Amino acid sequence: MTRDRFERALLRVLRPVVIALLFLATAFPFLYMVTLSVRDIQELIMDPGSLWPRAFTLDTYVDVLTRQGFLTFMRNSAVVAVSTVAITLLVSIPGAYAVARLRFFGRRQVHFLFLAVYLFPAIVLAIPLFVLFTMMGLRGSLVGLVLVYIAQTVPVTVYMLRNYFETVPRSVEEAAAIDGCSRLATIWRVVLPLSRPALLATGLYAFMIAWNEFLFALLFLVEKRESWTVSLGLSQLAGSIEVPTTVLMAGSVVLTLPIVIVFFVGERLLTEGLTAGAEKG
Hints:
Blueprint: H1 3-37, H2 41-46, H3 59-67, H4 70-101, H5 107-114, H6 122-136, H7 142-165, H8 170-178, H9 183-194, H10 196-212, H11 215-221, H12 230-238, H13 245-265, H14 267-275
Helix pairs in contact: 1-13, 3-13, 4-7, 4-10, 4-12, 5-7, 6-11, 7-10, 7-11, 8-9, 10-13, 10-14, 12-13
């Protein structure tokens, strides 16, 4: 047996083993969280080492969604996340297209300046934003939280979309211009349909930030419980000694499940969008 045949045979054996181990390492915590969320608290106390419940119950989810107020928290998070995605893309698309196609002084450096915002930790920006939003009357408002998230997501979405727009052939845009399309019509009718994978990738990125973010939600909304997001509601459960572990796990599932569903629905387009623009030829 040659070395090449030996290595190929070894890889054929190791590949499913490695995939299975990685899947187990990543999926087991979530599956264990789900099984805990559907267990009765008395059963958990009597047999804490059991990995599989003897009986399933959905009372924990009823408790989380009704008595703990997670239906309201999910609605607030959905409003914040969807608004953040919509406005982020609305701002980022023309900005990224301008950096990719238009000629102006400092064009090659401007997209790196967008990423400079990530040089500063969020805690450094928290106090000035808290003072500013208090003076503007936006503290305790979901509108103020959306503005903060937009400021966080726009720089990196501009950077991601710029890389993708540069892979769109100029000849396609030139053909649209010959057909009488203006610059905006070309973006709407030509560039955006070709950029759906990148738009999905950046949109999902912005959605995950807005759905999971905790620091600014705590800073701006802690005094107004009816405006809390899911992450803030979950922290309330985690900090309470009166809340059973099963209810806490149910709240964690409610926080995590929307992201998991959105990811798997758009996984193929998401992969294309993240890798597009990485190599030009």
